[in-house]
Automatic annotation (TrEMBL):
Span of domain Nucleoside diphosphate kinase-like: 3-142
Name of this protein: Nucleoside diphosphate kinase
Provenance organism: Dimargaris verticillata
Catalytic activity of the protein: a 2'-deoxyribonucleoside 5'-diphosphate + ATP = a 2'-deoxyribonucleoside 5'-triphosphate + ADP
EC number(s) on file: 2.7.4.6
Single GO term (MF): ATP binding
Class of this enzyme: transferase
Pfam families: NDK (PF00334)
Binding residues annotated for ATP, in chain numbering: K11, F61, R89, T95, R109, N119
One example of a Gene Ontology biological process annotation: CTP biosynthetic process
Length: 143
């Protein structure tokens, strides 16, 4: 099966908490196929957040999403493995952590997510999105 790459974010609440960060990295390490091939710490300006989340402009949670993502540094990861896009989204779980705790309690958002917006993780949702998002965070890599 072809290797695939995806872009993952460990959002500011995870990155600010060394215990959570270590636990999350350990769970990624324990995944049978997903591996971290690049990682960097990022601090966004308001403009960066507005650019990355342009598709959500106008939605009721857009401003609080941008405020959350500019509240402190966070980690950008490139994850690689067969079906990495799907496997990473399966590992982080449903968008809404409170619902995830009932339906998929083993997922990262169920374990660590705080609210519908402060849900601690991001994962690209398609091959095209993954390519665009990897370029956004890692423009220095030759893809
Ligand atoms: P992501 O893009 O971060 O992997 O998450 P997703 O596909 O599961 O969710 P999406 O609909 O793309 O939303 C992007 C981010 O916006 C915040 N959000 N807040 N109801 C709300 O308050 C709400 N809905 C979405 C979350 O931070 C979500 O990850
Ligand atoms: Mg999304």
């Amino acid at each position: 099966m072809a290797l695939c790459r995806t872009l993952g974010l460990l959002k500011p609440d995870i990155t600010a908490n060394p215990v959570f960060l270590r636990q999350v990295l350990a769970q990624i390490h324990d995944h049978p196929t997903l591996g971290i091939v690049h990682q960097k710490a990022v601090q966004w300006s308001a403009q960066d957040a507005q650019s990355f989340y342009a598709e959500h402009r106008g939605k009721f949670f857009y401003q609080r999403l941008c405020d959350y993502m500019t509240s402190g540094p966070f980690m950008a990861l490139i994850l690689e493995g067969p079906e990495a896009i799907r496997n990473w989204r399966n590992l982080i779980g449903p968008t809404h952590p409170i619902r995830a705790r009932l339906s998929q309690p083993h997922t990262l958002r169920a374990q660590f997510g705080l609210t519908d917006t402060r849900n601690s993780f991001h994962g690209s949702d398609s091959i095209d999105t993954a390519l665009r998002e990897i370029k956004f965070f890692f423009p220095e890599l030759q893809l």
